[in-house]
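Q: Convert this sequence to C-alpha cells.
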Amino acid sequence: IPGGFVQPGESPRQAAHREVVEELGIDAVVGRMLAVDWAPSDADGDKLNFVFEGGELPASTEFTFTDGEISLAQYVELDALEDYTIARLARRIRAAAHAEQPRYLEHGHPLA
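A:
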C-alpha cells in the first residue's frame, strides 16, 4: 500500500495522490477517506494514517516503481494480507476495506 508523509501545505488526500504517483507510477483517482488510524510508536513517534479509496484499476494497468519504495503490486485476498505485510497494516487495510463510512482506528483496531 503506497504511503508517506504529508508535505507542508499539502492535504492528506493530496499526499495520497502524490504517493500513488511516486510509488506506483500511475495517476489514479483518490476517492473518499475510508479510515484514519492512530499508530503509536515509541521509536518514530505517534502518527495518524489516512486510508483513501483507490477504486478498481483495469487488469492491464502497468506500474512503474520509480522511487524504489515498492517493488511489487498485486491484488491479494483480505484473508491473506499477513502473508504480504505487517500485522498492523493488515488490520488497517482490512478495517478500511469493510468501511461503509469513514472509520476511526487505534493501531489498526476499530473502536466500537
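The mean pLDDT is 92.
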